[in-house]
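Complex record, three chains
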Amino acid sequence: MSDHILQFKNISKRFGSQTVLDEVSLSVGTGEIFSLLGPSGCGKTTLLRICGGFDYPDAGRVILDGKDITELPPNKREIRTVFQNYALFPHMTVWDNVAFGLKIAGVDKHTMMREVGKYIEMVQLSGHEGKKPGQLSGGQRQRVAIARALVNKPKILLLDEPLAALDLKLRQRMLIELDTIHDEVGITFLFVTHDQQEAMSISDHIAVMHNGNVEQIGTPVELYEAPKNSFIAAFIGDTNFFDGLVEQEDGDYCTLMIKDFPALSVYNDKKLRRGDKVNLSIRPEKFMISATKPEITDAHTNLLQGKVEEVIYLGAHTRYWVRVQDWRISVVKQHFSYALDERKICWGDEVWLKFEGDNAYMLERYTEEDENLLALPDV
Amino acid sequence: MKKCNRSSRFPMIVTIITLIFLYAPLVVVSISSFNNSKYGGAWRGFSFRWYEKLFTDATIWEALVNTLFVALIATFFSTLLGTLAALALYRGKGKLQLFHYALVYSPLVVPDILMGISLLLLFVTTIGIGAKIGLSFELGMTTIIIAHITFCLSYVTMVVLGRLQDFDHSLIEAAQDLGANALQIFFKVTLPIIAPAIIAGALFAFTLSIDDFVITFFVKGAGDTTLPIYIQSAMRRGTPAVINALSVVFLILTFILVFTSQKLLEKKK
Amino acid sequence: MKSFKNQFLITMPSFLWLVIFYALPVFIVFLLAFKPVDPYGGIGGGWSLATLRNLSDPSYPVIIWRTVWLGVVSTAVSIIIAIPIAYHLAKMSSRLRNIVLMLIIVPFWTNFLIRIFAWKVFLNPEGFFRRSLVYIGLIPEETMLLYNQWAVLAVMIYTYLPYAILPIYAAAEKFDFALLDAAKDLGAGSFTAFRKVFLPSISKSIGVAVMVVLIPALGAYLIPDLVGGPTSEMIGDKIAQSVFTERNLPHASALSAILMITVFLPLLLLMFFRKICNNNGAESEKVPRIGVKK
C-alpha cells in the first residue's frame, strides 16, 4: 500500500537505567538498501534485534508491509537475519544449513532441492554443499549465511555487521557481491554497520544513529555534503571545523569572521543573521592548495595563507596538514596527472589555500560531547 | 628454536621422576601377575595360572555382571537427569536456579565417604519408617543404583553445562529467525550440538560408577558384590595373586580406552 | 508464560532427586548426631547428647589433626610436583605432549582399588622394591614400608596427583611463553621470571587444584584402611568403623558432621577470598555496556 515496507514508530527501549533507543522513528523504502550507521552503543543493533523479534520495545510499534509485527516472535516474521558471527549450525552441512528454513516451513522435496540449489549457486558456493561450516573460510561462511537467510524469500533481510569479521580486501569484495545479490533478489536490505565507508558505498539511504537517537536520515551524498549537525559532519568522512561569528548578511551569502582569518564569504543557506555563532565545516578536498598565490576572480572565493606541517602521500591523493596561525587544516589534493611530474609541495613550504564560499557548510556549534568524538583518531 | 638452557631441565626431571613414580607400582603388579608364587614376593617362575584362575572364577564374573548392571542403569538415569539439569541451569535465571546449581555442584566437592554415610542414613531411616507402617524395604541393588545415579548426576550436568556455555546463543536466534519453534530448535539444533557432551558425560558417569567402592560399600546389602567390593574384600586378606592378573586386564582396558578417546578427539580437531 | 512452565518442568527432575537423595541425607547426618543408639545397632527413640559427649574421647583430636595433616601435606606435595610438570607439558612439542598426558591420565582412569592394590604389591615386605632398598643399605632389614603414615601419604599423593596436574596444565597451556622471554629480556632471571610472571598467571588454577585435591584427601578412607596401620587412621576410617564394626550410626553421623565442617570450612574460605578478589577486580572493570543483552 505504501512504498515503505518497514516502519519503526516511536520505538523506545531501556536496559536497566540505560536508554538505548529514545523514540526512534524511521521508514525503510521497499527494495532499497537501508543502513543503520553509528558508533558502537548508539542503539543500532538493538533496533535491528527489535526488528528481527529478538528483543521487544518498551514502547512503539514495528510495522512490516502495513502489518503490526511488534509482538510477533521471530519465527512468525517474514524477516530473516544474517548474524554478525553468521550463526551457522556447526553440525550441518552447507546444504542443510541453507535448507533449514525450508524444512521448517515444510516445503516439498522437489521445491527444496531447486531453491537450495539456486541460492547456493547465487552465492557461488556450488561444489561446497557437503562441507561443514568449520571447513569454510570466513567469506564462504558469510555467503552460506546470506543464502540461508534468503532462501525463504523474506520481505526484509537484516544484516548485522556482516562484514566485521572479514579482512579489508575481502570486505570490499563482499560489499560488491552483496550489492549484486541485492539487485538479483530485489529484497529490502536493512544493514547495520559502524563503518561509514561500508554504509556510504552500499546504501540507498542511511540513518545515522547516536546515543539512541536518529540524527539524520538521507542519501549518502546528502549526509556528506549537507550534514544536519557537527556530529554527522565529523562522523561521515573527514572535515575541518572552524568556529566563527556572522559579521554581515550579504544576499545568499554572508561574511564570516573567524579568528586569525581574513573575512570569509560563505553561502548562507540557513539564513543566519549578524551575530549568530556558527561552526563552519570545510571538507579537506574542497581546498585548492598551491605554492603560488592563485588569482581570485570571484567575490565568494576565499584565500588563506599557511605553512605545510605534514605531508602524507597516499598514492591516489596526498594529505597535507597546513598551519594557519592557531589552526591546523587538513587538505587533500587529488593527483590528476602523473604525480612524479608534479611540482611537489614539501614540508615547511609556504602555501595558499583557496576555497569557494559555496563549498563550505555552516553548522550549529557542537557540544562538548561531539568534541570528544571528533578527537578520536581517524582510522 | 632450541630452548634447552640449564633452567628448563628441572621441570623435565620432575616429569620423568613423576612418571616413574606413577608407573613403578603398575610395572611391579604386571610382573607379579606372571609370578607362580601365591602371595607375591619372591619370584617362583613364570606362569599364566592367575589369568586362568581369573577367567574361571565365578565370583569375579558375578561381580563383573553386577558392576555393569548397576553402571548401565545409573548411567542412563544420571545422563537423563543431568542433561535436563544442565539445560535448566543454562537457560534459567533466578533464585530457584541458584539453589538448583548449589544442589548440583556441592555433591562434586563432598568426599565419597560423606555421600556414602548420608545415603546410608537416609535408607536406614526410610527402612525404619517403612517397617512401622508395614512396608519392607532393604539395602540392595536398588539402593546401590540410587546412590550411583546421585553421584553421577552432578558430573554429567557439569560436562553438558560446560558445552552449553560455549554454545553460541545466536544459533538459537538463527533457528528462530528461520522459522523454527522451541521443540524444533531443541531437536534440530541444541541436541545435535550438545550430543558429544552428553555422550562424554555418560561415559564419565559409566566410568565413575564402575570405579566406585566407598559409596557402594555403605549402601549395599549383605550379599551384593560389585567388582571393587570384590577386590577390596580380597585385599583385606593380603595381596592375592589373582588380583594382579585382574589389575593387568584393567590396565590394558584403560589404556585402550584412553588411547582411542584421544585419537577420536585429535581427529575432531 | 509457556517458557516458564517448560523451564519448571526441566528443572524439577534433577532438583527433586537431589533434594531427596542429597540435601535430605546431609540434613539427616546432622540430625542423627543427636539421637541415642539402640542396643541392636539401630537408632533409638528420643534425643540425646550422648554421642557428642563420646566425641570428647582423647583419641579424636589426634585423629582429626592427623586427617588435616595428611590432607594438607598430600595436597601441598601434589601441587608442588604438578606445577613444574604442567610447565613442562605446556612447553613440549604437541606429539610428545599427547603421549605424556596420556601416560598421566591412564593411572588416573584405572580403577581406584587397583591403584591401591598396586601399591600394596609394590611395598610388599617380600617385594622387589623393599628387598632392593634393604640390599643397597638404604633401609635397615626390619623396616616395613607398608602399614604406616608414610605409605598412606605416598598413596594419597599417587592418587591425587593427576587431579592437581590437569587443572594446572589446562591453565599453563593457555600461558603465553613469550611473556617469560619478555621478562628475561627486561633483566629477570629464569626463576624470577617463572615466579613473577608464570605463577601469577596460573594462580587461579592452583586454587582449583587445591580444592580438588584437599577435599577428597580429607575424606580419604580406603587408603588409610588398606595401606595404613592403626597409627594412621583418619576420620574416614573412624566413620566406617562406627558403621560396620561398632554399629553405632549416631556416632558415625556425629563424626561425619565434623568431617563435613572440616571440608567445607576451607571451601567457604576460598570462596570468600575469591569474592573479595573479584570485587576488587570488578571495580576497575565497570564499563557501561549498551545494546548488549544477555
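Note: Residues 249-284 of chain C form the longest helix (36 residues).
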